Amino acid sequence: MNKSILPAALLGLAICSPLMAETQTFELSIKNHNFEPSTLTIPLDERVKLVIKNEDATPEEFESHKLNREKIIPGNSEGVVFVGPLYAGEYPFVGEFHEESAHGKLIVK
Hints:
Blueprint: H1 6-20, E1 24-31, E2 34-36, E3 39-42, E4 48-54, E5 60-64, E6 69-73, E7 77-83, E8 89-95, E9 103-108
Parallel strand pairs: 1-4, 3-9
Antiparallel strand pairs: 1-2, 4-7, 5-6, 5-8, 8-9
């Protein structure tokens, strides 16, 4: 390798390494207009991927004002929502189309 490009290559690696770190994935299901599990614990100060599987035939909207996220998930399909990094605490969410039954929270610790 050409010694003159080695410092630039090392700098590029140092910058990209945190971006290439694997994002933890957590799963939620929607069944009978309810989130399962209704409470999900995720790690503090990390960006995470929520995979939301809608097992109902009708669409649902994952919504959280505190997380500033909205995602419509068609029936019998799945959607992905990225959140974080977050401070410790509780972050409620609802299924906007069935708020009377579809609600839950993320606990960050």
